[in-house]
Amino acid sequence: MKYILTSIIAASLLFIAACDKKVNFTLNPAVPAATASGKISKDRNGNTTVDFQVRNLAPPERLTPSRKFYVVWIQPPGQAPENRGQLALDKKLSGKKKITTPHKDFDVFITAEDTITGAFPAGEQIMRASPKR
Predict the structure, then answer these.
(1) What's 97's domain CATH number?
(2) pTM of the entire structure?
């Protein structure tokens, strides 16, 4: 019985991992050392989840023009961008963000902004991806 249960759990984990797809980000030349990687998946409620991380991203204060924050946005086709909050960086210039949305088709992008709560992106776009589920 223990062997069967272990096999079922292992098969389930492999199935879940196989459902995750890689997300490729296009980076702005203003942040040449930065890298970004992520994955897209579907949660148990049918929502789309994008889980990504960035590394070696210059603090927004070092950009030209200088900004205060990085803000994450999603934008379904034909719709206005949706602010999904700040992408905070740690001391190693890395950051992580997980986004959940009911949309299946959308772009995710990061801008450098002077405020976290803006309704529309005003700053320079730093990176962008078009995840497909």
Answers:
(1) 2.60.40.200
(2) 0.83
Given the DSSP bridges, would you call strands 125-129 and 26-27 parallel, antiparallel or unpaired?
antiparallel
Mean pLDDT of the chain: 88
Residues near 101 by beta carbon (within 8 Å), at least 6 away in sequence: 47, 48, 50, 74, 82
How many other C-beta atoms are found inside a 10 Å radius of the C-beta of residue 74? Answer: 19
- 93: which residues sit within 8 A by CB, 6+ positions away? 55, 56, 57, 58, 59
Pair 17, 11: CB distance under 8 Å: no
Structure tokens at 88: 């905070």
* SS3 (DSSP) at 103: coil
Question: How many domains, the chain?
Answer: 1
2 located within any domain: no
Q: What is the pLDDT of residues 21-40, one digit of tens each?
A: 899 999 999 999 999 999 99
